[in-house]
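Dear colleague,

Thank you for sharing your sequence with our group. We've completed the structure prediction you requested, and as agreed, I am returning the results in plain text so they can be pasted directly into your records. Please verify that the sequence below matches your submission; if there's any discrepancy, let me know and we will rerun it promptly.
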Amino acid sequence: MLKLAVIPGAICGGCDVALASLGEKLLDVLKYYEIVYWPIAIDRKLSDLGAVEEIDALIYMGGVSTREEYELARKLSSKSRVKVALGTCSVYGGIPGLNSLSSPLEVYKVNMGRSDHWIQGDSLGLPQLVPYMAYTDVVEPDILAPGCPPSDKVLDQLLEQLIEYAAKGKIDHKPILLGDPESLCNKCPRNPKTTKIKMPGIKRLHEVELDDKKCFLEQGILCMGPATRNICDHSCIKTNYPCTGCGGPLDWGGDSGVSMISSIGSVLLVDSEKSLLEPGLTREIDKLRDYIGTFYRYTLRKSMLYKLRELKKGGLK
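Please find the predicted structure tokens below.
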């Protein structure tokens, strides 16, 4: 039996629940793997995992926000044959990745009083914060499984990869980015029938009585579908809510924010550009109040924007 460990880092718990919710599907994997650590599923201590010399498959969920999480991720990854980054926080940094705009001390001051702590004798101990990182900032995983949380589509593909590894003893192409290499728009149930999308302006959800059969962009609502990898069954869009981009860019190493800005530039007020000119278009674009939160909600850590910022600070080589 191969050894499988599932490690929660800095997570909300959604990825953990999504994986556990596969239920009977997990039995196919358990024909090949023994779970040596997974807090939500089995009663094993972290000290027990430390005694395991080699791990065949390591699934790491969430990001890294403390020294303890960083050291654990490095140590376990070093003795794991296959490393899986599960969930958008693990792959791209996720929403907590927006913390990268602030120093660990600034983040601590905001969250002070809500942090875990422990008491040793008469002294109070607090976790040692490090600059927030995605798991992919710590190591280079073999399999990337994005999603917030990952959909059944991505999780099914992950199980297939684990079973294939158990049978073949190797992974042919690394890293493997799960999902389909196309944008959500390609299979969207609201895919417009027109050859050219025209965005009538930029509106917020409460300003529009949405037509649930019409493309969000054609109604003035920002939807990250054009720049987001197809990793789900369009569950958000089917409930009349636009895609916010948790699947990340279409390809590993891409920049979904840049792609989306380009998409908007090609469809926004295309019928009125000549009359509005630059000042009119600028007034419309100024309706966006949070560029980073809109275009890089999940992927800031891996964006060109962040890399340029760090290069300017001298933080990246």
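Summary note from our side: The mean pLDDT is 90.

Kind regards,
the structure core
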